[in-house]
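Materials and Methods. Structural model of ABC transporter related protein. The 592-residue sequence of ABC transporter related protein from Kribbella flavida was retrieved and submitted for structure prediction as follows.
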Amino acid sequence: MSTTLPVAGAARVRAAAWSDIRADRGAVAGLVLLNGLASAAGLVGPWLLGRIVDTVRAGSGDVLGTVDRLALGVLVFTVVQLLLGRWALAVGYRFGERTAARVRERFVARTLALPPSVAEHVPAGDLIARGSTDASVVAFTLRRAVPEVLVAVVQALLLIAAVLVLNPLLGLCGLVCLVGVGVALRWYLRRARTAYLTEAASGAQLADVVTSTAKGARTIEALALEGRRAEATDEAVADLRAARLRTLWLRTVLYPSFDISCALPPVGVLLVGGALHANGAVSIGVVVAATVYMRQLVGPLDTLTIWVEQLQAAIASYARIEGLADVPREEPRPAADPVDDRIEVADVRFAYDGGRDVLRGVDLVVRPGERLAVIGTSGAGKSTLARLLAGLERPRTGSVTVGGTPVADLSPDRLREQVVLVTQDHHVFHDTVRDNLRVAKPDATDEELHGALEALGARWIKDLPEGLDTEVGTVVSLDGARAQQLSLARVVLADPHTLILDEATALLDPTTARETEQSLAAVLRGRTVIAIAHRLQTAHDADRVAVLEAGELVELGTHDELVDAGGPYAALWASWHGGHDDQDPRREPGAT
Ligand SMILES: Nc1ncnc2c1ncn2[C@@H]1O[C@H](COP(=O)(O)OP(=O)(O)OP(=O)(O)O)[C@@H](O)[C@H]1O
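The predicted structure was written out as tokens:
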């Protein structure tokens, strides 16, 4: 898996944005219609103003009465424009909220749909940045910028059209004067996408460096890597600073160019209109109306300038959110229902990311109901084998099957009923105890939930202020043993026939480990158990022992058979057992 998440290309962004718009097309149509009406109402005022000027200049008939009526018209249409504009904005805001919710939901759904083998390897900081910062930028833009930009675009187009209708020559003059705006915008837009994508990626990179430093703090301290991590952080900060300076520079050029360009159209129309009027080509009223229209254009253009930067940042964020759809993943393969509970590993080879094989030609049949201990030195491939048995990885060659079906082909729901990997990583969600447990069985009744907790001796559930409804992780925090019991209760609810234990109790303190082992014993009853053994006592108590060395299965048999065989297991057993008869076997350091 690459160290960066993909970013959607321009075509995909357009397609996704189009489908978001289509999903709420009623609101979009209403938005455009209301904006059009508001802008049309806004056009009447300047036109009436021109009529007032022409009426006063003509000076014939009921000048005062006509001017009063025209002025009343200006007032009425201004109020109508205001009301329609507000209504359009309200429709726009609602559209923005709904669309933002849709984008967030899509992101969450795509994140949750990532297969575990992919999810474990994606850069956490980048993923978090996309779900938080990028989603917020998109949501804010949809709420505020999109409605206002739509209003501004419709207004600007109608204003230009109105000047062209009033007098095509003045209209053309206005358009020519607008060229500066077009040039400034084009210059900016050609550079903005890359600049904002770089800024967002640098932000995510910094988040990644900080997150991984915090996560690996102990290792960093132990290996005295503080200096290197500080350097990596400084580099990420410098990259982000450079990326921000680049976007700042783009804005520094855009804003003044835009402001100067916006001042040109009214000045140009006034000058050309004055010349035309002097030659009797247009009335002074038309010149006034056209100039006011051009002056009014500054409003929508200003809005566009303010939001164009936000839009660019949002497009970059939107591309990053949509990019999640391009994370390489395997298409689900149709999987037949397993015919029985037999687990079979046949001539398996496996390599991480195209590297060297870390498992080489492993053959193993696990009989239903047996306890198999897997031992081997550090790096021998025990955890990798556990991940293959749990369907988290797929073998490069060979097969890992349960009841004849490849484990990795099973859907998460079917897999959970067959094989579950238990590690020391027991996650407690910030949620109620009930929802924490229902992760494993969404339709479990309260009786089943209580039953699962009781089976593990988790009597603390009775002391919680609101029982199953207690929010854990926020209101009430669970200590290590309780958190482990909660996660083991999930296993009881999922009720798989086979459990794979990998370091389930390895790093717990002795008291917690004892409590957890008791809970574990309750979970193991009646199931097939494959234990990555860190204590030789576990191997001694198992039905069979599998010994891995440098990715190969070098021995397989009962404890007694392997001791008699005099191979690597016998040597290991002798080196610990010989001369340590007085020692409590549960305290020996383990096989790894
Ligand atoms: N995610 C990974 N990417 C690349 N290589 C890996 C990854 N995980 C493990 N390895 C490599 O695969 C080999 C087998 O590792 P594995 O963790 O399966 O061994 P292990 O026997 O469980 O060791 P330990 O007892 O130390 O956990 C090792 O050389 C290890 O460096």
